[in-house]
Amino acid sequence: MSRKVYVAGAAHTPFIGKFHPDFIWKKHPDFGKRENPTLEDYVHRAALGALEDAGADPNQVDKAYVGNFVGELFSNQGHLGAVLAAAHPGLQGVPTMRVEGACASGALAVSAGVDAIRAGADLVLVVGAEVQTTENAKVGADYLARAAHYRTQRAIDPFTFPALFARRMRAYSEAFGLEPAELAKVVVNAYGNANKNPNAHMRTVRMSLENASEASDKNPCFLSNEELQPFMKVSDCSQVSDGGSAIVLASKEGLEKLGRGGGQTVEVIACAQATGPITGPEDLTRMEITKLAADRAYAQAGVGPKDVQVAEVHDCFAVAQLLAVEALGFADGPGGARKLIAEDAMAIGGRIPVNTGGGLMAFGHPVGATGVKQIGELYRQLLGKCGDYQVPGEPTLALAQNMGGDDRTAVVTVLRRG
Amino acid sequence: MSRKVYVAGAAHTPFIGKFHPDFIWKKHPDFGKRENPTLEDYVHRAALGALEDAGADPNQVDKAYVGNFVGELFSNQGHLGAVLAAAHPGLQGVPTMRVEGACASGALAVSAGVDAIRAGADLVLVVGAEVQTTENAKVGADYLARAAHYRTQRAIDPFTFPALFARRMRAYSEAFGLEPAELAKVVVNAYGNANKNPNAHMRTVRMSLENASEASDKNPCFLSNEELQPFMKVSDCSQVSDGGSAIVLASKEGLEKLGRGGGQTVEVIACAQATGPITGPEDLTRMEITKLAADRAYAQAGVGPKDVQVAEVHDCFAVAQLLAVEALGFADGPGGARKLIAEDAMAIGGRIPVNTGGGLMAFGHPVGATGVKQIGELYRQLLGKCGDYQVPGEPTLALAQNMGGDDRTAVVTVLRRG
To answer: Looking at the domain assignment, is residue A139 inside a domain?
Structure first.
């Protein structure tokens, strides 16, 4: 009934930050000689990269969207639609807007792009980007707390979001008896995947099961909130990264304009969203908004969790990955992620490979880019383009889950190779 | 071919700020006893007001959009989709996102809502809101400079945007010979309209032609940039306002769900956008991006400028109104606005009434609300609901122009009563 939507191209910049060899900081040999790329740089590079990958001329673009969370704060720059329009003369005049929903900003930009195709556009450019390294970690944590209900939740800890997910971790452990070594396996898997990914923030950082299992001087429990402190180590967290990702969406006619009417396609067979009240969540042991979005996505796509062959989930913290795979139906109900861990089911060779490029924990998490990156990664997996971290068996069905705040905005997207 | 889109309801909160009798500041009798509404309050009140006006139950809403520019800065709050979801239990789970394009954020939210209907939704809630009075004017001006290219344009003046439009004013005066008294007539018309509008920020403030024509102690040229200083007085500026507006958009089926299948309708017959590079503009005497959006809107709607019977234009500064009506084709080419002023054509009884509720200069300009308010105002004009400032002659065709930055994002929307 509605117009079909395809992914026609994708590109990522490298995701960089602390511990990445190209990231400029005071101990880098190039410190003072060159600077890290700006938000503007990332928007432009990702956009032009995706257009090139799609074989699209900039002036073929009908509409464009930019996913970004807090450019106004880290980079003093809003109005990123007009920033994108400056990337190439061919993009001048193209209707472009910025979309925001905290860490789900990227997937919301994808979702708006999908609606634009369904509403009549043929080629839509979707860019996600974030720069977060212009401020120190404490200032950055304050900025990112604007994804929560700042007035009532900011005070939980100087690091508001790590504390909110420590609360999740405590609840999950109490409810389901999770052991430290089990969570550590999830972390180690993410780093191992990132070590095979040339664009990953943590591509050169090794993570051992021992390091990930126990707090130490190098891997401290860093929260000030004493009740929550034991439930969050540095290694349980995603990265503070800079970076950009972009994809090109196309209608059937759009693919034909690109000379790609025949051959393999990757179709967006579902893109479903749910939003919960900023003051939530109620049940800390479940991601209810993600589940709602997933239920809608499966209904749209006409598939179920058992059909998914590769997935990107929003592991902003290690425990979030467990809650996400349970909400998405990959595990046997709440607490079921423990069995997936025991079976190595989420590894690249497992039953349901998750975050094959390293996820938010090790590929990195430039907030606004993440939801776009997920779709780009699945597009590449479905076309067999992931090199050292390619999933075996030529998968045809893939799912992405991107989340804003503490499961307040969720977007679940399903892709099928045809 | 594409699905038709209707406006089914609208509401504004009062727009308030300095000089509004309800605005709490140190000289207000309630100072210390109560506080001004928050961004959250405005989002909620506008949303529930529009749903009530449309006769819609919150759980009938398929999707929702929030237009806001810099909530992260003035209110420490992003993720406004989840803030809207907390307005009413019936809105929980509704897919909701925040949309941003500087001062065009409101119209971009409308535009995203129009696409959502065309893509298959039946009822869409669009909210715009901004709070700007939590900081002083200089800090606020710095925040708002994030609508320009901050890195290269911030330094033009502590008040970046007034300076950018002083530059426009100087160019316009040099090119077309505008006299101070002509510009003053535009300002006086805006205040006169606002004096008839119970929701207007300046509803109790009188503006005389004499006051608006000359700089004075009470109406200073306030820029620090000496070259530009003579070209911008306080009275030439829009207001720093807090407020919210919301509309309900519906498909044909959506109107039927509301029990409004028959009777008068207001259809969105065009909603067109254009975005220019953030580093522009090139020609200071024309709004080229607005013209591009207008050309697209007229083509979509199958009407021309002469068919428009009432308009809302983005008068962020008095000179912007002149440039806008020229770009929209209401005047005889560049410089033609002078003739419209001489003929009182833009007054409520004139040939092409503009900003009948007072516009950004006197109704006020809570940035993210403005583009939504424009559509709500035109909806009310087309249905004869504007009371003391109702346009005579039962207009059937109306146009809104909302702008982000210095003509960098433009959205032109055309409505028709049927």
So the answer is: no
Q: Nearest CA to B205 among B13, B14, B18?
A: B18
Tens of pLDDT along chain B (418 residues) come to 589 999 999 999 999 999 999 999 999 999 999 999 999 999 999 999 999 999 999 999 999 999 999 999 999 999 999 999 999 999 999 999 999 999 999 999 999 999 999 999 999 999 999 999 999 999 999 999 999 999 999 999 999 999 999 999 999 999 999 999 999 999 999 999 999 999 999 999 999 999 999 999 999 999 999 999 999 999 999 999 999 999 999 999 999 999 988 889 999 999 999 999 999 899 999 999 999 999 999 999 999 999 999 999 999 999 999 999 999 999 999 999 999 999 999 999 999 999 999 999 999 999 999 999 999 999 999 999 999 999 999 999 999 999 999 999 999 999 999 9
Torsion of CA A329, A3, A367, A224, to 10 degrees: -40
- Give the other-Cβ count within 10 Å of B214's Cβ: 13
Q: Is residue A140 part of a domain?
A: no
Residues 256-275 of A with CB under 8 A from B: 272-275
Same domain, A83 and A153: no
- Nearest CA among A194, A21, A9 for reference residue A113: A9
* DSSP H helix total and E strand total for chain B: 15, 9
In a domain, B141, yes or no: no
Q: Which residues, numbered 284 to 323 in chain A, qualify as contacts with chain B under a Cβ-Cβ cut-off of 8 Å? A: 289, 292
- Residues of A in Cβ contact (< 8 Å) with B79: 100-102, 146-148, 278, 404-405, 408-409
Supply the range of the domain harboring residue A222: 146-236
- Do residues A292 and A252 both lie within one domain? no
- Say if the Cβ atoms of A101 and B98 lie within 8 Å: yes
A271 is catalytic: no
Residues A121 and A160 in one domain: no
Question: Are B207 and B249 in the same domain?
Answer: no
Q: Do B276 and A95 touch (CB under 8 A)?
A: no
B181 and B151 in a single domain? The answer is yes
Residues of B with Cβ-Cβ distance to A79 under 8 angstroms:
100-102, 146-148, 278, 404-405, 408-409
How far apart, in Å, do the first and last CA atoms of chain A sit? 18
B88 and B206 housed in the same domain: no
Q: Is B67 on the interface with A (CB under 8 A)?
A: no
d(Cα A310, Cα A418) in Å, to the nearest integer? Answer: 16
State whether B192 and B248 are in the same domain: no
Same domain, B214 and B277: no
| Any domain includes B375 | yes
Q: Which of residues 87-106 of A touch B (CB under 8 A)?
A: 92-102
Residues of B with CB below 8 A from A99's CB? 97-100, 112
Would the CB atoms of B76 and A102 count as touching at under 8 Å?
Answer: no
| B87 within 8 A of B44, measured Cβ to Cβ | yes
pTM over 0.90: yes
Q: In the numeric block, which tokens belong to residue A66? A: 């930019």
Interface check B153 vs A, CB under 8 A? no
- Catalytic member of A44, A103, A271, A316: A103
- Looking at the structure of chain A, the number of domains it has is 3
